[in-house]
Structures are given as structure tokens and as C-alpha cells.
Amino acid sequence: MESFLHQVFAGLATGGIYASLALALVMIYQTTHLVNFAQGEMAMFSTYLAWTMIDVGVPYWATFSITL
């Protein structure tokens, strides 16, 4: 049962990330009528920056506020 719940929460987290990126793409497209292909690169950069900061020892909430 624990494995099942872990998979459910992991799936919800992944789905939330996909939904956030899709919403960001739609919002940019609706305002500019251009597709921003660099958006994935910006998301990847902020994720890498957050991972590096947490690995170095910066507190989670400080990392969250900086990379947001």
C-alpha cells in the first residue's frame, strides 16, 4: 500500500509540473501569439540552480524564493 501511495503522489507531482509548464506556454502564446521555445530551457535552469543550492546547503525555503 505504501508503494501505491508513493506512486500516486509522484504521479500527481509530475502532472502538476506538466500542467504548470503547459499553462505558462499558453499564457505566453495568448499574449504574444508567438511560441517561446526557450521556456523549457528557463525552467531547466531554475531547477538546476535550486538543486545545486540545496546540495550546497542553502535552506529549502530560501532556495524556493530565490529560484521562483
As a percent range, the share of strand residues is under 5%
Q: Any low-confidence stretches, pLDDT <50, length ≥5?
A: none
The structure class reads mainly alpha
Spell the H/E element sequence.
HHH
Number of DSSP strand runs: 0
Distance between the termini: 34 Å
Number of domains: 2
Radius of gyration equals 15 Å
Mean pLDDT: 91
CA-based shape = flat
Put simply, the count of helices is: 3
Percent helix range: over 70%
> Which sheet architecture does the biggest sheet show?
none
Description:
With 68 residues, the chain is mainly α. The N and C termini lie far apart (34 Å). It has helices at 2-32, 39-56, 60-67. Helix 2 packs antiparallel against helix 3. The longest helix is centred in the N-terminal third of the chain and has 31 residues, at 2-32. It folds into two domains: 1-34; 37-68.
Concise structural overview:
The chain has 68 residues and is mostly helical. The chain contains three helices and no strands.
